[in-house]
């Protein structure tokens, strides 16, 4: 690419190595979660949410289990102010939920913020000012000392306003654009703010270190977080928080490594909505923990319902391949993948293991409200016999013989390829019925009678284009006698009859299903399926279906 020389790394590594986090294997407990959907997420929307939509979204966040929810920047607009006052005045904030509000370190904004909080039971007041080299030099044109003075004055005013306002307030400070700030300066400004706020065990202060613009690989961010964690004053009374953005596509990795490095709290949004490439996706973070057997303390047991509200009120769309939430994230089209999944699911049924372990499926889709039927295995021209058989068995209770699955698999692949589309389960079932089930042309079964006392002598009444006729046959069993009668009457020869039967697993429990495969003299195999309330009748119908397939093929070739 052109102009690569115009770019340089803009982050700052700690002065000393901070790599203790690398010795940790995984996250062992959930952080404090803070949703910033209603502030950071909302301001990123083309059409911001109206009051009713915000109230619905707030209710959903509460139901999911968020205990801290940033509800806006109340001094920024009348809309934000009104939303906060509605929550307070209509008593819509549960006692165990803390709202959070954002304010710049400017006197009139801080005072307006506390005015908006009158009557609230508990709130986090989030103070921030920009600290990065780019912001200091280009936007504010101020020295380090002047930037520190802005933060310290804001912190002092927080304490003053909190003292004058009824309510229980916790303080949070963010050196905005932390990732572009010299690490020694970030530490200095945070410690000077902490000296003013004087955190205690009863009222800890939140220090939030945002990747306002993601500028480094995740291990660099983790090293920065660990350095800050080890050098902040009042550390035992500080809640270290992360607010990763996703400019480099590493928001989730930044958060995960940041937690290994000492962070106790994460600010993010559902499905990563936010300005530019978005905020860290809390759904992905939480379910990543879940996949390791760690309770995320958030309820995502009905992802489809959450998605429905999210997409409706934000007017945003979650990509089909978005982790956990996307329509296709559990779906296999590939034949080999489908076969492995189908076998893995069967193994689980047989072994009943304690822990989840199915090929290609990180977690059980049922745990987050997805369905095996239509969510895991979907059929197109790339699909194989295992997936197609799995769909028929799971949705319709049809357990095809292995070799019949392969035969039907090629049939479905051809249809999907010709139509250039995915085939839905009902379409697959309709094709199966049309191709195999109770086929009654050119020879239709009318009725039969078997005398088991005389070597299974069988009389079968059939209907063809030539009319209704009665044919007879004998054999070493009931089905064999019917087969011999058909071969003699139709002048057909076949061998190696493959037979399987079972009760219909889904739907009417009174019906039986039989499958029969016959091999012609040219080694071609023809398959039929019979469904009937009587098991013997279903077997005979399956045989008639297979024989009719064979007859049709012979008539077509003659």
UniProtKB/TrEMBL annotation:
Entry's family note: Belongs to the alpha-IPM synthase/homocitrate synthase family. LeuA type 2 subfamily.
SUPFAM superfamilies: 2-isopropylmalate synthase LeuA, allosteric (dimerisation) domain (SSF110921), Aldolase (SSF51569), post-HMGL domain-like (SSF89000)
Cofactor: Mg(2+)
Domain of life: Bacteria
Region called Regulatory domain, residue ranges: 439-558
GO MF term list: 2-isopropylmalate synthase activity; acetyl-CoA C-acetyltransferase activity; magnesium ion binding
Keyword annotations: Acyltransferase, Amino-acid biosynthesis, Branched-chain amino acid biosynthesis, Cytoplasm, Leucine biosynthesis, Magnesium, Metal-binding, Transferase
Record protein name field: 2-isopropylmalate synthase
Pathway note: Amino-acid biosynthesis; L-leucine biosynthesis; L-leucine from 3-methyl-2-oxobutanoate: step 1/4
GO biological process: L-leucine biosynthetic process
UniProt binding sites for Mg(2+): 40, 243, 245, 279
